[in-house]
Specification:
Radius of gyration: 33 Å
Structural class: alpha+beta
Distance between the termini: 10 Å
Strand content: 25-35%
Oligomer: single chain
Strand order of the largest sheet: 3-4-2-5
Shape: elongated
Helix content: 40-55%
Number of helices: 16
Length: 595
């Protein structure tokens, strides 16, 4: 038996309206901080040192800069300034008056009301091309890392088998064993200790080469370690909102928004300084290393270091009893144990501090340059805290301390590209970019209102809501940065968003030409247009994902706004438009359905 009943058309369940309204309200609150904008500011990290807001304001006022406000947030003091032009000047003034360990960072503070910020909303982060700043592209040189691992193999083998010799060749490492007594044990040792190396064994000669998989693994680990160290160095410089990302196999891209004088950042980012502590050796030792000291005198050291810079957790410049600059070192637990054990057994013996850095020779190859900066006789057992002297001037001591705090790079890096964008150019990019967005949005709204009339205002409402949702979603997404190509993606989103409504409205017109009522045409128009809109947006989303995965920097910025714009366009162009039309025109129309 067939039963006939009626089902309402052009209606949404109440929960759908609740979801729509809630989403729009959240997106509006998320977009509001970006509308309020940001104020130029300084972040002063005291690191436990004494410094109050009154003295900071006094230093600035005496130099002709009156801060808008100063607030304390734990160990950090935030100074709000009137303009971005005052930032660099105020930073230099405070660095001269405050303690060396206190960092003064350029920053931007949201101008939105505090209640909005306390709710967890923040303005959109601007990229380098919109805020101004400096960008570096660095290349990680893996050749010294491969050589270091090859030398480590030789050291381990010759330490285990005294009657042996090792040398680095063009292919890898050649190990020669003198005598046949240890031949079998040597082969077993190599297989167990170096399983990832390709081996070739002939008589008493063992040849080892690093496999492609081993080199790839080593390269990935080295670049990741360098990335982490770069982030720590930038944090030590007091630069906020920095972006440090891997690019390709062995390159690192660093963006420092707001930095206009790249000299200091360049010196620290590209530096590869490190310290190591060596025992002074007998000149007749076969495993000795000879380096020059500050006076160009040769010093013979044990090749293997007591401990390296990776154990240093803190370093502070200071002045010694004789008025000379020195660096106070703090070691981690492992480094402290090693230093304690060595010095306990070597009281009365000399220990050298070796400073090393990489540089490029005339051929463009990386060279490690090391020198002995101090040789001291061990007077007593040392622990996790001690000091080194012979570091040069106070400025040299401060730079060395900063590098040691931030860590030693595991491989030398070379700055192969540097790009600086001034703050005025960044502001001009923002102005021109949003002017283009406003013009495109205004022309689109006008055309839709004139062409579709009755339904035009629905499309316009959905389009404005789409922009609000897009701004709100970018602000909510962790790590999302708005760039100039990102603004281009927003302009493109305007066209894509209105395309959905154009397609729907044209389908509605077609249904009305077939003789259907307005309500029926609305229902059938949305149904028939949905699949076309979904398919078109899905294919574009695939392109956006590919752009983000393969591209970098500006290309990723464009891909992010394009992808998010597709989501907001579907939400507002289809669902919000339908909800509005349902409320206005779809209340009393019904259709019959067979069940």
């Amino acid at each position: 038996m067939k039963k006939r009943n009626s089902q309402p058309i052009n209606r949404f369940a109440k929960w759908k309206y609740i979801v729509l309204i809630t989403t729009l309200v959240v997106m509006l609150f998320s977009a509001l901080p970006s509308i309020y904008g940001e104020n130029a500011a300084l972040h002063i990290n005291h690191r436990g040192q004494q410094s109050d807001a009154t003295s900071i304001a006094q230093h600035l006022t005496q130099s002709g800069i009156t801060p808008s406000s100063i607030k304390q947030d734990g160990d950090t003091t935030v100074v709000i300034l009137d303009s971005a032009e005052q930032q660099a000047e105020a930073q230099a003034i405070l660095k001269n008056h405050l303690d060396e360990s206190i960092t003064v960072a350029l920053a931007m503070e949201a101008a939105a009301p505090q209640w909005l910020l306390n709710a967890g909303f923040s303005p959109i982060a601007l990229g380098l091309d919109l805020r101004g700043g400096v960008q570096f592209l660095l290349e990680v040189d893996m050749a010294p890392v491969y050589r270091a691992h090859q030398q480590s193999v030789i050291d381990e083998f010759t330490s285990e088998f005294r009657a042996s010799r090792g040398r680095i060749t063009n292919e890898g490492v050649q190990l020669t064993l003198f005598g046949d007594s240890d031949n079998s044990r040597a082969r077993s040792f190599v297989r167990q200790q170096f399983p990832n190396w390709d081996r070739s064994i002939q008589d008493n000669v063992i040849r080892l080469t690093q496999s492609d998989d081993e080199k790839s693994t080593l390269r990935n680990l080295t670049v990741q370690q360098n990335l982490q160290i770069m982030r720590e160095r930038i944090a030590e410089l007091g630069i906020t909102e920095a972006s440090v990302q891997r690019q390709g196999e062995n390159r690192i891209r660093i963006e420092l928004p707001g930095v206009q004088d790249p000299a200091a950042a360049k010196d620290v980012i590209g530096a590869t300084a490190s310290l190591a502590f060596h025992a002074v050796a007998d000149t007749r030792s076969s495993r000795a290393l000879t380096l020059k000291d500050n006076d160009n005198h040769p010093i013979t050291l044990e090749r293997r270091a007591i401990l390296g810079g990776e154990h240093i957790i803190d370093a502070r410049a200071g002045v010694g009893d004789m008025g000379a600059a020195e660096v106070n070192i703090s070691l981690d637990a492992s480094g402290g144990r090693k230093m304690s054990q060595f010095t306990r057994s070597n009281i009365g013996n000399p220990m050298a501090t070796v400073y090393s850095e990489y540089s490029r020779n005339a051929k463009g190859e990386s060279e490690q340059v090391s020198k002995v900066i101090s040789v001291a006789t061990i007077q007593s057992q040392l622990g996790s805290r001690f000091r080194i002297t012979g570091v040069g001037s106070m400025h040299d001591a401060q730079e060395l301390a900063l590098l040691l705090r931030a860590g030693s790079l595991t491989a030398p890096v070379t700055i192969i590209e540097e790009r600086t964008i001034g703050p005025s150019l960044g502001a001009e990019n923002v102005k021109n970019g949003f002017a283009a967005l406003t013009l495109g949005l205004g022309l689109t709204l006008t055309f839709i209102a004139l062409w579709y009339r009755r339904l035009g205002w629905v499309a316009n409402t959905a389009l404005i809501a789409n922009m609000v949702c897009l701004f709100g979603l970018i602000a909510l997404l962790p790590g999302a940065v708005l760039t100039l190509p990102g603004i281009a993606g927003m302009v493109l989103t305007v066209g894509m968003a209105v395309d959905a409504n154009v397609l729907i409205f044209e389908r509605i017109k077609d249904k009305m030409r077939e003789g259907r009522t307005f309500a029926q045409s609305i229902d059938r128009g949305f149904q028939s247009a949905f699949h076309s809109i979904f398919d078109a947006n899905l294919t574009t989303m695939i392109v956006a994902i590919a752009l983000y995965a393969i591209g970098n920097g500006p290309i990723q910025g464009f891909a992010i706004t394009l992808g998010l714009g597709l989501l907001t366009s579907m939400f507002t162009g289809v669902f919000l438009s339908r909800a509005i039309i349902n409320l206005v025109w779809g209340r009393d129309q019904r259709r019959e359905v067979r069940v």
